[in-house]
Every structure is written in C-alpha cells, then in structure tokens.
Amino acid sequence: NLRTHYTTQIDPGKIGDDKVALAGWVHEVRDLGGICFVVLRDRQGRAQVTLVKKKIDRELFNFARKLIRESVISVRGIIKPEEKAPNGYELIPDEIELLNEAESPLPLDTTGKVDAELDTRLDSRFIDLRRSRTNAIFRIRHEVLHAVRNYLAKEGFLETSSPKVVATATEGGTALFPITYFDREAFLNQSPQLFKQILMSGGMDRVFEIGPIFRAEEHDTRRHLNEATSIDIEASFVDHFDVMEILENMVEYVYTRVIENVPDALEVLGIELKVPKTPFLKLTYQEAIEIVNSHGEEELKWGDDLSTLSEHTIGEHVFQETGEEHYFIIDWPTEIKPFYAMPYEEKPEFSKSFDMMHRTMELSSGAQRIHFPEMLKNRIADQGLDPEGFDFYLRAFSYGMPPHSGWGLGCERFVMTMLGVENIRDVVLFPRDRRRLSP
Ligand code: AMO
Questions:
Q1: How far is the CA of 226 from the centre of ligand 1 (A)?
Q2: Which member of 82, 155, 324, 362 is catalytic?
Q3: What distance in angstroms lies between residue 113's CA and the mean position of ligand 1's atoms?
Q4: FRET pair for 37, CA 20 to 30 Å: which of 52, 125, 315, 328?
C-alpha cells in the first residue's frame, strides 16, 4: 500500500500505533545534523516526517537527508502527536520509498517564497498546481461545480450535453472558430443555446449543461477566454423572472457550500467569503444608463451596450447603495440582445432579458425566449442572419414548443469574482487565449 491516508485524514489522538503510509512530494528537507525533517505534501496538505539520528537506522537517515525537493515518495511509519507540526502530528518512518526522483533546479518555486509571472506558471502548470494558492483555487472550482450540480439536480434539472461541432452561429456578434469537418466547413460552438431550446420542445422541461464554449474574440483581456466553461440552464413554462430567481438562489447556495466545505482552501487564499444576499437588486437598463450618465465619465444613449467602464460605474454605485456585489440589469433594448430574446408584448423595443452582474463584470445573460416560429424567423432575418441555416432549430418550434426561459453563467467569471482573482487565466487549468495553444 503506497498510501493509507491523506495528510489531513490522520487524527493523532486516535491512531495509536497503527502503521500509516503517506504518499506525495518532498516539499522541503531540513537537515539540522542530529535531526532531519522531511515535509511531505499531498493534495490536501502537508505532514512532517521526523528522523532523529540517534534513534533511527543510519542508512534511512542518510537517505532522507539527500532527498531532492519535489521527488515523489511514500513513507510508512507510526504517528506521534506533535503540536508544532502541520495537522498536529509527526510521522516517524521505518521506510521511505523513492518513487520518482525530480530534477533540479525546478522550473518554479513551489513553496510560495518566490513569485513567478503568470506565463511562467502556465507554461509549467504541473508544477504551479503544487503551489498552495493554485491548489486552493482548483479545489474551490471543483466545489463550485459540484454545488451547481447539486443545486440544479435538487431543483429538477436534468444534466445534458450538446455538440461542440456545429454548422451555425448562435451568439451573433462574437466570431466563430471555423474547423474542417470531413469535406464541409463547421464551427466550434459558441453556446449550447439552440440545443437547450430544442430540448424544451422535446419535453425535457428543465435541463442544464456545464461545458466548453468557444469564442473567437480578438481582444486579450483579463476576463475573456477563447475557450470558456459555461453553466447553462433552460426551463419550460416559466418566465425570465423565474429563472432569475433560480440563478440568485444558486449563487447563494454555491457560496454557502464553498464556505462550509473548503474553508481551508479559502484560508490559504486569505479570503473571508460573504454569502450574497437574495433577492438581488434589479435595475432596468434605463436606470443603469442613467446612473452612468449621472456620473459624467461617459454619455450613453438608449440602445448603447454597456462598456467595461460603465459596468464598473454601475457596480460601484450599487455596492455603495446596498453593500452587495451582485445585481441584475433587466429589460434590455431588443435590438442589442440576441434574436431569441422575447420582446415585451406592449413595448416590443424592450426585451424580457437580463444580465446578472458582479460589481466588476457581467457574469450571466438570460431571457425568456421567443417560442413562436414566425416571430423567431423574422428576428433571425432582422439580425442579418440567414433563417435557412437555422432550419434544424426552427423546426422544433412548429410542433409544440412551450414558452421557456434560461440563462448562461460563465464558470470562470463566477469563480474569479468569488475569489477576487485578477486574471481569468488563474482559474482555468489550461487556458486558451490568443497566444496560448499549449499546454
Ligand atoms: P453570453 O454570450 O452572455 O450569453 O455568455 C454567457 C456568459 O458566459 C461567459 N462568457 C465568457 N467568459 C469568458 N470568456 C469569454 N470569451 C466569454 N464569453 C461568455 C460570461 C457570460 O455572461 N446563450 C446565452 C446565454 C443564455 O441566454 O442562456 C449566452 O451565451 O460570464
């Protein structure tokens, strides 16, 4: 047995003389002459292996002293309570097995003493992941996705998957990545949008998907990726206010789960997470542009999209007024939302659409959808798209499509705003951007 426990799974008061085996990386070797400490690190934490020269086999002592940092080892022995050591114990070894030796020097420092540039870290992600900060971020990201799945399943949503190789654009505006599909041109999908809507016609009623979306956006910013992870839902017989409620409750639930389940990871990052209060404030688009205009840094007209600067102005304004970081902007002009957003009957220049915002950026967009085939066809044509290309989608609307609504939430933006991370690349294992195609 190479490993019986993670370093954090040992209760020094209870384990007695039972043999344990820990496996992981050599984080540090401290050779003080008469005593040698080897700090072993695994995914969950660290443990101190203590070798006292006088009490231990000479050969084992000399072997431990010479271990090279970041080599992989398995250590068997017994546990002694030790308050000063990590997790309150030390491991007295009777065997240290070297499973794979690391070269030296390392491409990156893993102890957190020397900081490295993001690019250097991404080039050597395998080593970067051994740093406690990076490890904490990805354990939290796991917890976020796990909580999202729990929450949506609890609310009756079925998990689905849609194709990533497609024939049409869905989110007009952002560019597509063309690929070769046998002898035809195809694209990497920008969003599961059309497919999740088709599933509503199929009677699946409530679905969600967590998957990659591809956007050939040229700009190189701290909050854009060319391959991002989207959390998408679609639900039948409900309107945009109903799905906004699902979204805010999910955000509240996920924050709560992260606080409960990974407090140690939050502590590594030095974060005291506050659960957002629901319901979130709802500003209309009209109110949002008035806030921007009253601040005087920018002049927005009805029909303008919100710039990054205006998102910040509104976010700060909301934060000052409410102390909360999350809010909605609702009732967007129909002309600046995608073709599938449902216009209000009595004022069709406004749509039943919303964005969920964080103080610093947009996190999610959603809407009630158009479920009438003729109206949808006209909207596609109005936006300069060819309805013929949407045949496979439009057909689903002619044979019993229920009214439905949904949203898409950017997983990376959700995690980065939760953790106050500056660059979106920090919350993706292997980010894809204009320059980065490997690893
Ligand atoms: P939208 O295009 O607004 O809406 O995307 C939804 C959310 O996905 C995230 N996102 C991105 N994150 C990082 N890098 C990108 N390049 C990127 N593009 C999008 C954002 C954004 O708010 N079909 C609709 C959703 C719906 O109506 O159901 C859609 O895709 O957090």
A1: 11
A2: 362
A3: 37
A4: 125
Task: Please tell me which residue in 46, 130, 131, 224 is annotated as part of the active site.
Answer: 224
364 Cβ below 6 A of ligand 1: yes
Neighbours of 1 (CB within 10 A): 9
**Pairing assessment for the beta strands 361-368 and 353-358 based on DSSP bridges:** antiparallel
Ligand 1 centroid, distance to 252 Cα (angstroms): 20
**Cα separations (Å) of 87 from 15, 27, 99, 316?**
13, 15, 24, 41
Each residue of 251-275: pLDDT tens digit? 999 999 999 999 999 999 999 999 9
The DSSP call for residue 275 is P
C-alpha of residue 355 to centroid of ligand 1, in Å: 10
Which helix H or strand E contains 80, and what residues bound it? Answer: strand 72-81
Answer whether 408 contacts ligand 1 (Cβ < 6 A): yes
**b/e map 26-62, b = 16+ CB within 10 Å:** bbbbeeeeeebbbbbbbebbbbbbbbeeeebeeeebe
Confidence tier at 173 by pLDDT (50, 70, 90)? low
> Is residue 333 a contact partner of residue 347, using CB atoms and an 8 Å limit?
no
Count helices and strands in the chain by DSSP H and E runs: 12, 16
Q: What is the ipTM of this complex?
A: 0.99
Which of 28, 82, 155, 217 is catalytic? The answer is 217
Query: Residue 198 and residue 400: Cα distance in Å, rounded?
Result: 11
3-state secondary structure 300-320: CCCCCCCCHHHHHHHHHHHHH
Q: Is 217 a catalytic residue?
A: yes
